[in-house]
């Protein structure tokens, strides 16, 4: 059995009640729903739904790759390392 950990979060009370009601209608416990979310993040290596913001400045979205700051490039490299490490962890269970 895989090692498990406890992780606590703070939620808006009304949002929690509404979400938990949806989980009940779907036949899920809140814990099952959260585990499903985390599993999809790992499997897809992304947030499993579209995230949008009306405050994003369109002019900043089309910055040429060569204009990226060193920090942005460094963060992208770190993300790649994280996903490589996740793949190794997930695949080690299959051996």
TrEMBL record:
This is Type II toxin-antitoxin system RelB/DinJ family antitoxin. Pfam families: RelB (PF04221). It comes from the Bacteria. Transmembrane segments: none annotated. Keywords: Toxin-antitoxin system. Belongs to the RelB/DinJ antitoxin family. GO terms for biological process: DNA-templated transcription; regulation of DNA-templated transcription.
């Amino acid at each position: 059995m895989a090692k498990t950990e406890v992780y606590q979060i703070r939620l808006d009370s009304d949002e929690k009640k509404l979400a938990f009601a949806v989980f009940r209608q779907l036949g899920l416990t809140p814990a099952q729903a959260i585990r499903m979310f985390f599993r999809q993040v790992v499997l897809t290596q992304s947030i499993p739904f579209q995230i949008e913001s009306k405050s994003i400045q369109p002019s900043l979205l089309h910055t040429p790759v060569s204009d990226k700051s060193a920090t942005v490039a460094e963060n992208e490299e770190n993300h790649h390392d994280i996903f490589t490490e996740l793949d190794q962890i997930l695949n080690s269970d299959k051996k």
